Amino acid sequence: METLLALFAVGATILAGWAMIKRYQTHLVLLFAGLAIFLAAIALGETNILPKGMKPSGFIGFDIIDLLRNIGTKQSAGTGFIIMTAGGFAAYMDKIGAARALVNFAVKPLQMLKAPYIVLVGGYLVGQFLVMMIPSAAGLAMLLLVALYPILTGVGVSAASAAAVIGTSAGMCLGPASGTANLAARTAGLDPIIYFVQCQIPVAIPTLIAVCIAHYFVQRYYDRKADDVYAEATEVKKSDAPEVPGWYALFPCLPIVLMVIFSKLVVTSVKLNTISALMLVWILVIIVEWIRLRDPKRVFKDALSFFQAMGKMFAGIVSLIICAEFFANALKISGLIDILINSAHGLNAGTNFMTVILAAIVGLVTFLTGSGVGAYSSFAALAPDVAAGLGGSVSALVTPMQFASGMLRAMSPVAGVIIAVAGAAGVSPMAIVRRTWIPMMVGMVVTCIANAIFLA
To answer: How far apart are CA 445 and CA 152, in angstroms?
Structure first.
């Protein structure tokens, strides 16, 4: 019976993957795939589907819905609220022009360099730095297409090369503002800033170096080959955000600075959590805007974008995480995770092997669907059980999985960010992907190696 249920779970997972590839709504696909597995478990005689700590309602059919309610409540008040707050803060920084000021400030030093492909590599590093403050891959790409793209093409690299580098700029989703990073931190039982410093950075540094080297040679090779077919490029409009003083570039960085200072890394007697840091800086910037503009009606209207974006983040990302965790709970009930762990033991495979397998699964789903958040959130909740079964570290499992969700998105021809940068360059998404897949795959190999050295 257990084997039959596990086989059903495998079939449901494959069917869910097919549905996501066919562009069915990811949230509902995961929700109903999980529901189907739970119903199959009940039909095969399962009497308790609830995780530890949850009391049954007395009717197992209600328990399924109660589990969904419990997950939704927990996510909305925990990691989900952090993600909503980070999204709201990023939207407000964009609304008032602070995000654009930061991008302009960050790309300015590149104008002083003369070597085209050194500038291109520098552009990639700038993008990976900026994603810590501007966690939206598509949003960051739009800002970089305005500020960085002309610099890159101006020094002599091709439009396709410039677009490829911009398309990979959010590849590793670094920093405590990223939705997948927050989910990884919660899964590993770490504060987001601690996960960033202790888990992401040690793996990210060698990965960044490897990707930079790969970008340098890959983009130069294809530019010399010069066989890209260009069409009419899509006009990239500048942001509607107002012009602001250059020192506004400090505001998007301030929450991370405060979180690092007031944590166990520096000032151990005072702790400032992610939500409080973002809200503190948001209120501070509202006061600064009020003093600078002397127009409280306009300032308050702009400030409301914080809450409006929080609602959009719930609808887009947090609700997806809720449905994905529901699906993950169904996979646990099916016994599929136990079979994977036992198989790994049978093959004498440890945590590093399973890390590569899980990262490959997340990467494959991301590549096929173009959605890193959907792929990662579907499988991240499985990491604690797998780590416990193999005696490994949860952080060592989730970090490569999280990086895979960003890097494989940057080589997916159906990802929104790749489609956007391809349109701006006037080439096909496949022309961009042929320039991004080698740097991203090199990055994933180095990620797995660095993860095994520093975190496993």
So the answer is: 27
DSSP secondary structure string for all residues of 407-430: HTGGG-TTSHHHHHHHHHHTS-HH
Which pLDDT belongs to residue 386?
Answer: 84
Q: Rounded to an integer, what distance in angstroms lies between the CA atom of residue 355 and that of residue 449?
A: 11
CA angle centred on 317, ends 329 and 48, rounded to 5°? 15
Amino acid at 73: T
In the predicted model, what is the mean pLDDT of residues 13-27? 87
305 pLDDT tier (thresholds 50, 70, 90): very high
Q: In this predicted model, what pLDDT tens digit does every residue of 205-234 receive, in sequence order?
A: 999 999 999 999 999 999 999 998 888 788
Query: What is the three-class DSSP state of 381?
Result: coil
Q: Categorise residue 370: left if φ over 0, alpha if ψ from -120 to 50, beta otherwise.
A: left
What percentage of the chain's residues is helix, strand, coil (to nearest 5)? 75, 0, 25
In whole angstroms, what is the distance from residue 374 CA to residue 180 CA? 10
Element (H, E) at 101: helix 98-107
Cα separation, 369 vs 257, whole angstroms: 35
CA 17, distance to chain mean position in Å, is: 19
d(CA 169, CA 420): 13
Spatial contact of 305 and 92, defined as CB atoms under 8 Å apart: yes
User: For residues 138 and 182, is the Cβ–Cβ distance under 8 A?
Assistant: no
Distance CA 177, CA 179 (A): 6
| 423 pLDDT tier (thresholds 50, 70, 90) | very high
Which pLDDT score, from 0 to 100, does residue 304 have? 96
In the 8-state DSSP scheme, what is residue 241? P
* Sign of the dihedral defined by the CA atoms of residues 126, 132, 137, 141, in that order: negative
Least confident of 116-130, 352-366, 418-432: 352-366
Q: Is the pLDDT of residue 345 over 80?
A: no
Rounded distance between C-alpha atoms, residue 85 and residue 81, angstroms: 6
pLDDT for residue 407: 95
Taking the C-alpha atoms of residue 121 and residue 209, their distance in angstroms, rounded to an integer, is 10
